[in-house]
Amino acid sequence: MTLTEDLVLTQAILTRYILAICMVLGIIGSLFDLIIFCQKKFRSNSCSVYFIATSIFNLLVILCGIIPALLTSYQNYDIALYSSTFCKARAYIIHVLLMMSRSSVALACIDRFALCSRNAHIRRLNQYNIAILLVIIVCILWLILPIHVLIYIDIQMPGRRCGGSGTYLIVYSIYAAIVTLIPLFIMIIFSFLAIQNLRLSYIRIHPNIVYTNENINRPIRMQKRDIQLMTIVISEVVIYFISTVWFPIYTIYLTITSNISKTTNRLAIEGFIRYLALQFLIFINSCSIFYIHLLASKPFRQECVNSQYDIYKKPKTLSEMSSREKQNKPSDSSQQQDNRFNRQDSQKSAIGQQDRSSEENFDIIKYLHNNRDELMERYGYGKSSKRRCPRYYFINKKKSILIILQGDITRTKVDAIVNAANEHMTGGGGVDGIIHRAAGSELYTACVAHKKITQGVRLPTGRSRILLSYNMSSTTHYIINTAGPVYDRYRKEECAKELFSCYQTSLALANLYDLESIGFTAISCGIFGYPANQGADVALRTVDQEAGIVPVVVFVLWDDDIYDAWVRKAEELEFTSFDIENIKTKNPLTSSNDNDQIETKKNLNKNDDQPRSPTTFNPPVRDFSTHDKTPEDNTKSLLDRLPSVPSDTSDTQKTADMEEDDNSSNEKHPLHNQQTQDMASVTQEEEKSTTKDHSEQKSVEETMDQHHNKQIKTNDDPSQLTVSKKTNNSHAEVAKNETAKDN
After folding, report:
1. Spans of biased composition, class Polar residues (predicted)?
2. Which residue, among 112, 114, 135, has the nearest Cα to 125 in the 3D structure?
């Protein structure tokens, strides 16, 4: 057999057997692609629209391209070589369908790039309506552009072939190379950019952390879903490159060698190469898309199995459904058992929180007046008309204060801050990384000590865990880690429920630990992509309903747009705002007569950094350093009360500390030494004197007892401190004069 006969036989075998098998598998695969991507959970996804369009176009390519090729091979008769209309129509239809399929794959790559882009305007391309519109535009575009094929493609003689000739053959070769390579370049470029964006996103969510064990050099890996998605896209690009790059190369070669005389063997080789480039490899690509998905993605394989099970499964009876539900219960309970410490306690606290808040007669006005200066010092103040200044509102049925400010949450003084963490609890980008760096490596050690519920998940989305603040103890006492949802516009309701659960469980833990203040950030509104307006609506409504007995809820926001969204939402929800600078003269919750009756008290615990229970409301501080003493020596008691001896102790110190400070200050003061010597001589003279009037001594003791009683009342009422000091001075002078008379 000659080379020409061998090539003709090989072409016939490839067409009759290989293409026939590929046709059957391709039709089945395209139908399975349609079944899977048309499911409810995939149907509204923009990328699924492109995959559905690709499956439809590939199915039409198989029907319009392989079936006529099989008929020609078996009947040994090609109607396109004898009918000009069929020649034009087949070339036009196959070219249009192939370009629509390639364009759909390129749009899928662009869609994946837009999904993981950091630019909000680019992410808007990842929408269902835009995907449908782009598919329609692509169809119209490729129905119009190849009209020249209907005009210039015809049966060419001699050799009886369906194609172009002359100048058009050169133009068509350039056109074929351009329209074939442009989708290929788009696929490669946007696939590469999508992979880069995924890596950057993963680094922001899971940054490099210094490990102290043997796994320090272990590289960071992307999430499995991202790897599987990128594997599908890259596999499609590779198969497309292998199957289509030969067609423009052959077209360019044919144009260059069109005027060269060729031998029979060379014409046979060119014909075989033309068959491979123009028909066989292109048809193989159309038939292999489903199997590329099947080999590259494990979830896709599971979805295929599930779809087959849904098709062939028998209707379940009521007993089978109940038994299956019982089998699923242990897995749910095992997950709940792992989060027993924080989840069950927070649920118990949330259940009894309304009863606790109703039982505690919490007076927010009294709390605000007592802590006004401290609130202004911690969170700032400003006129209400000033933009991006701290805003104060009443929430929780006017039992709590909401503060919205812009700043750094790691420097905001609250009892607990809520960290927008991830499911791994290993730190990440944004606020999560800032908090981990501020708290130190101890926080990371405490986080990784928690048991993993599933693979890589220590904290399920919507749940919260409370830990100590470690190196941030100067500004806060606890760090509440909560896992916010990654926003998906096709799961809006589920994301909103998960975000609501984040705020709810965090507030439940704050109520459980009797915290006086809690600081939030805009959970999930950063790299997790939750829209600021929707996030503000969920956050403010939740804290308004679930604040419980937490008096102060602070939102520390880092971005101007997010701050504006929170303020706008607070105004839309009609929260009662007030100016904390004018809280003495203007009370937004009571009438003017009531305001006149409320006395503004100075905060005696201004330097006290320890957390106070909101149910204690700054109890009055009493100084028992002298009340508890029963002085044996009247001279020493008088000396302790002399105004010339300074006292460096504060009213909030304990009795032991005050006595120690008084003793140390008395020893160091020079005036004290002189007074001690004078009073010692007086004591010696009193011991020698036997004619001392005991009645005068008794009157002095009664005077000092009265002074003790007045001192106790004065400590109960801070407004009388100055009066008490004057009384103390006067009594001391009287005692000194009486002693001088005795001398």
Report:
1. 330-339, 585-595, 646-655, 672-683, 717-731
2. 114
Half-sphere exposure (Cβ direction) of 74: Cα atoms closer than 13 Å: 10
Q: What is the spatial distance between Cα 669 and Cα 663, in angstroms, rounded to a whole number?
A: 10
Residue 184 and residue 241 in contact, taking contact as beta carbons nearer than 8 Å: yes
In the block, residue with structure tokens 């960071």: 220
- Whether the CB-CB separation of 506 and 464 falls below 8 Å is answered with yes
Q: Can 628 be counted among the known catalytic residues?
A: no
Q: Using an 8 Å Cβ cutoff, are 108 and 233 in contact?
A: yes
pTM: 0.47
The order of strands in the sheet holding 576-578 is 464-468, 478-483, 416-421, 517-520, 552-557, 400-406, 391-395, 576-578
Catalogue all structural domains in the chain, each as residue range(s) with its CATH number. 3-207+219-309 (1.20.1070.10), 342-382+389-590 (3.40.220.10), 634-742 (no CATH)
HSE-up (13 A, CA, CB side) for residue 184: 17
Which one is predicted more confidently, 208 or 240? Answer: 240
- Catalytic residue, candidates 226, 415, 432, 623: 432
Q: Are 509 and 466 in contact (CB under 8 A)?
A: yes
Exposed, middle or buried by CB within 10 Å (0-12, 13-18, 19+), for 560?
exposed
Question: CA-CA distance, 634 to 64, in Å (whole number)?
Answer: 118
User: Which helix (H) or strand (E) element contains residue 675?
Assistant: helix 670-688
What b-and-e string marks burial along 339-349, b requiring 16 or more CB atoms within 10 Å of the CB?
beebbeebeeb
CA distance 200 to 181: 29
> Which has more pLDDT, 476 or 734?
476
Supply the DSSP string of 268-326, one letter for each residue: HHHHHHHHIIIIIHHHHHHHHHHHHHHHH-HHHHHHHHHHHHHHHPPPPPHHHHHHHHH
Asked if 499 and 523 touch (Cβ cutoff 8 Å), the reply is: yes
Taking only the tens place, the pLDDT of each residue in 41-72 is 676 678 888 889 999 999 999 998 888 888 88
User: Is residue 617 a contact partner of residue 367, using CB atoms and an 8 Å limit?
Assistant: yes
Q: Give the C-alpha separation, 631 to 641, whole Å.
A: 12
Helix (H) or strand (E) holding 478: strand 478-483
